[in-house]
Amino acid sequence: MTVHDRSAFIIGGTGQIGRATAARLVAAGYAVTLGHRRPLPAGELPDGATSLQVDRNDTEALLGALDGHDLVVDTVAFTPYHGTQLARLAGRVGSLVVISTGAVYQAPGLPVPIPETWPTVEREAHDYPSGKAALERCLLATPGLPVSILRTGVLHGPHGRSLDHWSFIKRALDRRPYVVLAQDGLSRFPTSAVANVAEIVHLCALKPAARVLNVADDPLTVAEVAARVFAVMGHEAEIVTFAGPSRPDGLGFHPWNVPEPIVFSTDRVRAELGYRPALSYDDALRQTIEWAVPAVERARARGGGWPDVFPDLVARHGPDVWFPYAAEDAHVAGA
């Protein structure tokens, strides 16, 4: 019989971050409960965890489920209302970790790299960055609340509904001899491996405090990302680039497609928590690929395809810019 001396509750525990965090906390000896809205299908519960179906909008029931835990992790807090719920945990839990986003940083004019002290958006809007920024302000203004706010980049890892690296994974699977990238292949946009987000959650639990931390992988250029994916998959491909944005037919498109580099500073999380990645960038890629490729194969067996596995990827960028192989062939032939 396993005896646990620490307990954790993860709101949104069956999602991508929730699953990775549950695995890390179970390995660290926590009794882990996953909170979720809908009944779980058979086999969906991560090893070593228990689950509780709870309505996020029923504040009293939610707080009752969270009371007394050593650690509460909220992966699905998006609005000031969620902030007012969580603020009531002051004095009732050991540590609170809330997943936020680097999209809260005020742009344009972002420094390279962006420190946690950079201003966040303040506008009367109901969009994703505004909601997250208002949530953060509510929590940080609450006396006695040991809340760690983690600002992540674009997530990658198992069980995601989006995967930017699929832009290169599929090309390797298709044995493409080259990939064509806009912006000279120099675009940089932060990504975050969920295994490393989970590691930081665990470190925050060990050192409760009110703070904001950036969470990001190494700040690679998109050409370097492509090269790393191809190397991990044992695929050789030429990386062809051109200046300026991607073209309407999709030539040069990639999800990192920004004209100016966006890079998060991770100095604070390293200094305050002694953080070192639980997985290297290449090992995180391997973990992602080992999940993603069979997931897409299962979707195809059901008559679908990769957009069914990564619907958020299509929602963010549209259906028509992916894998324009004929345009790539023409571009390379005419170069």
From TrEMBL:
Q: Pfam families, from UniProt?
A: NAD_binding_10 (PF13460)
* Sequence ranges assigned to domain NAD(P)-binding in this UniProt record: 12-156
Signal sequence region: none
InterPro entries per the UniProt record, alphabetical: Lipid_A_modif_metabolic_enz, NAD(P)-bd_dom, NAD(P)-bd_dom_sf
Name the UniProt record assigns to this protein: NAD(P)-binding domain-containing protein
- Organism, as annotated: [Actinomadura] parvosata subsp. kistnae
